[in-house]
């Protein structure tokens, strides 16, 4: 049996958003999201950490080639969110609020489309140095993956 390990890659990006749910009234949005519901939106310098899991290859000693991991993260996530308005530039957020929870799920769903099956272990998104979300793909279906568009 192969030895299993984990590899983590951390990236940074900047994006704007407005916390606003199409499923709530304007008053409910203001009550739920407070100043983060401001119509002009606001921005964050996010930190994105991707953790992959797998057997350590006996020939090359790697779980995943870092160059592949960098390419997957850039193409599936960063190229779409960096210096963008999440609410206006990404179709996924047209029907759901651009919370950090949904942003982590978005990153997972996008990466699941380009990475080998079973390799993606966790997605961690820091909105601020004090607030982060960990998403491990629980509850994700093939339909969710196919419907995740930018």
TrEMBL record:
InterPro entries: 6-PTP_synth/QueD (IPR007115), 6-PTP_synth/QueD_sf (IPR038418). It is an enzyme of class 4 (lyase). Its EC number is 4.2.3.12. Keywords: Lyase, Metal-binding, Tetrahydrobiopterin biosynthesis, Zinc. The keyword Lyase applies. Gene3D superfamilies: 6-pyruvoyl tetrahydropterin synthase/QueD (3.30.479.10). Pathway: Cofactor biosynthesis; tetrahydrobiopterin biosynthesis; tetrahydrobiopterin from 7,8-dihydroneopterin triphosphate: step 1/3. One of its GO terms (molecular function) is metal ion binding. One of its GO terms (biological process) is tetrahydrobiopterin biosynthetic process. It comes from the Eukaryota. Its cofactor is Zn(2+). The keyword Metal-binding applies. Belongs to the PTPS family. PANTHER family: 6-PYRUVOYL TETRAHYDROBIOPTERIN SYNTHASE, PYRUVOYL TETRAHYDROBIOPTERIN SYNTHASE. This is 6-pyruvoyltetrahydropterin synthase. The lineage of its organism: Eukaryota, Fungi, Fungi incertae sedis, Zoopagomycota, Kickxellomycotina.
């Amino acid at each position: 049996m192969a030895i299993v390990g984990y590899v983590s890659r951390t990236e940074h990006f900047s994006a704007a958003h407005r916390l606003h749910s199409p499923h709530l009234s304007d008053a409910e949005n203001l009550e739920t999201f407070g100043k983060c519901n401001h119509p002009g939106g606001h921005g964050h310098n996010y930190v994105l950490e991707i953790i992959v899991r797998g057997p350590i290859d006996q020939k090359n000693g790697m779980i995943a080639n870092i160059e592949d991991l960098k390419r997957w993260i850039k193409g599936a996530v960063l190229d779409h969110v960096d210096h963008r308005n999440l609410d206006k530039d990404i179709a996924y957020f047209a029907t759901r609020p651009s919370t950090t929870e949904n942003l982590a799920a978005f990153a997972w769903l996008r990466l699941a489309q380009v990475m080998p099956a079973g390799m993606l272990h966790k997605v961690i998104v820091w909105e601020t140095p004090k607030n982060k979300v960990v998403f491990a793909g629980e509850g994700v279906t093939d339909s969710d993956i196919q419907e995740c568009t930018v």
